[in-house]
C-alpha cells in the first residue's frame, strides 16, 4: 500500500503565489476558494470562485475549458483536503496554492473584499494583470 506522503507528493501539485498570478493573468487557470463565504467576503484573490469545503461538491466546480483548476484557502490545509477529494474521485492531479491567501497577501498581490458582484470582473482582471507585471 502506498503511504499518504508518497500519494501526496506524486499527485498533489503545490504552486506559489507568483505562479498562480502568472497563470491567472494568462487565463491558464480557474481558481476555486474553499473557505467559508464569510472568509471569502473578507479577503479573496481577484477572480476566485467560492465553493466552501463544508459544501464541497465536485459537480459544482466551474468549467475549466482547458485551464488548470487551482484550489486555495486561508493557509493551504482546506485546499489540500479539497484536492484529496478530487484525487479520490479519479483525477490524476490536483493543484493548490501553497500557503493559501496568507502566501498571496505575503507576496504583496492585490486582493478583493466585500460581496462579489458581476461588475467586479473587469476590476478583478485588472488586479490580476497588475500582479503579473510586478
Give an overview in words.
Helices cover 41% and strands 15% of the residues. Helix 4 links the parallel strand 4 and strand 5 (94-97). Mean pLDDT is 84; it is low at 1-9. Helix 2 packs across helix 6. Strands 1-5-4-2-3 form a five-stranded parallel sheet. It has one domain (4-132): 3-Layer(aba) Sandwich (Oxidized Rhodanese, domain 1). With 134 residues, it is α/β, with parallel strands linked by helices.
The rounded Rg comes to 14 Å
Would you give the CATH topology? Oxidized Rhodanese, domain 1
Q: Helix count, per DSSP?
A: 6
- Fraction in beta strands: 5-15%
- Give me the secondary-structure category: alpha/beta
Ends apart, CA distance between termini: 45 Å
**Helix and strand run:** HEHEHEEHEHH
Helix share bin: 40-55%
Give the arrangement of secondary structure elements.
Layout: H1 4-11, E1 12-15, H2 17-25, E2 29-33, H3 37-42, E3 49-50, E4 68-72, H4 77-88, E5 94-97, H5 100-106, H6 120-132
Parallel strand pairs: 1-5, 2-3, 2-4, 4-5
Helix pairs in contact: 2-6
Amino acid at each position: 500500500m502506498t503511504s499518504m506522503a508518497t500519494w501526496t507528493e506524486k499527485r498533489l501539485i503545490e504552486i506559489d503565489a507568483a505562479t498562480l498570478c502568472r497563470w491567472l493573468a494568462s487565463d491558464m487557470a480557474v481558481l476555486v476558494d474553499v473557505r467559508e463565504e464569510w472568509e471569502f467576503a473578507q479577503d479573496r484573490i481577484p477572480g476566485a470562485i467560492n465553493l466552501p469545503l463544508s459544501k464541497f461538491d465536485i459537480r459544482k466546480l466551474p468549467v475549466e475549458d482547458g485551464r488548470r483548476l487551482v484550489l486555495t484557502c486561508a493557509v493551504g490545509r482546506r485546499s489540500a483536503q479539497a484536492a484529496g477529494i478530487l484525487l479520490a474521485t479519479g483525477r490524476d492531479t490536483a493543484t493548490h496554492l501553497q500557503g493559501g491567501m496568507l502566501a498571496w497577501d505575503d507576496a504583496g498581490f492585490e486582493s478583493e473584499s466585500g460581496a462579489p458582484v458581476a461588475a467586479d470582473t473587469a476590476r478583478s482582471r485588472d488586479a490580476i494583470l497588475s500582479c503579473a507585471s510586478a
